[in-house]
Structures are given as C-alpha cells and as structure tokens.
Design goal:
Blueprint: H1 9-27, E1 32-33, H2 35-42, H3 46-54, E2 66-67, H4 68-79, E3 85-90, H5 94-100, H6 104-107, E4 110-117, E5 126-127, E6 130-134, H7 138-144, E7 149-152, H8 159-168, E8 173-176, E9 189-192, H9 195-208
Parallel strand pairs: 3-4, 3-7, 4-6, 7-8, 8-9
Antiparallel strand pairs: 1-2, 5-6
Helix pairs in contact: 1-4, 2-3
Amino acid sequence: MPEEKKISMAVIRRLPRYFRYLHDLIKMDIKRISSRELSERMGITASQIRQDLNCFGGFGQQGYGYNVESLFNEISRILGVDNRFSCIIIGAGNMGTALANYENFRNRGFDIIAIFDVDPRKIGGTVNGIEIMSMDSLEDFVKEHKVDIAMLTVPNTHVTEVAEKVTSLGIKGIWNFSPHELRLGNGAIIENVHLSDSLMVLGYRLRSAGY
C-alpha cells in the first residue's frame, strides 16, 4: 500500500464519510455494494470513490463491487479507529461541556480523561463523570498520564498561549475550536475547527436556493 503521508488531504478528509456510511450499511446487513450504489448514497461520483480507494490499493472486484465489512475494516485500520487516544479538554464552557458529553468519541477511540479550566467556580466539578481540574495542575497531570490530544475551547485571545503550553508538555495533537487559525512551528499536528464557516456556507446555500 502507498505511504499514507503521500495521500492528498482531500482524500483523507473523505475517509470518515466512507466509515460512517459503511457502518450504516453493516447495521442494515448489506454485504456488498457497488461504487455506483455507494455514490448514490453518499452524493459523490462513483469515479471519485474508485479514485479515493485506489489511493490505498483498491478494495473492489469488477462485477462484484465492494465487500462492505472488509472495506469498513480496512478504512477503520487506515483511520486508526482501533487505536486509543487519550484526550483532555481545556476550557469547561459551553463547547467544552458539549464535547465532554459526546459519547461517540469513545466509540471512535478517543477517551477524554480530564477537563481543565481557570474558573474556580468550575474546578472540582464534573462533566459526564470527567473531573474539571485547575490549569495549575496541567503540567503534573501530563507527567503522570499519557495525553495524545488537547481539545482547546478557550477564548481567541488565549489560544496560542495555551497551545504553546500544551505542546511544550509533549502533547502532539491539538483540536482547536477557537476562531483563531492556529499555527505552531513546533511539529504539533493541529486541526482547526471553524463551526461558523459551515454555518455561513449553509446560509449561502439557502439564499442561493431562494429560501
């Protein structure tokens, strides 16, 4: 199989969609599916599906299509779903609380083990059974626990400072929910999530459709 680092990020970002749709097909007890049938469900072309999957060696058979369970398992492996990642949330506001309450993270291999905040009114409480701890204890916590990912739900004005802090402690992955497009030059792997961008795209589509 080609090295995954050579695969375009556009293809990588489509893999979770394949994962979700194939998971639904398994629950419906569908054993095999053609690229055409899958394209009709996903709303992308059959050609695009074949091109995407061929980046990883291709998994279909001409005249048969794809074995749903085998393809699901292979995409799961590519995405590292069988791996477990330990995560912390920094910022126990509305977004941080929502993330802590989202049960599907654990099903996808992401275990939230602690939440950190600076507000003394929140420290010592819990969200979904996860303790909210003081930011002052972050360094000691990271020394004692393996932490792979920090989910940042802090104000825009503090996100760079917090990101530099967590990466200095050896945390390599950052999931950034602030409006700031976070970039660090220290080798950290960053995913910037801009929920308002998606909402504005939806607004554009509604206006374009005359609604």
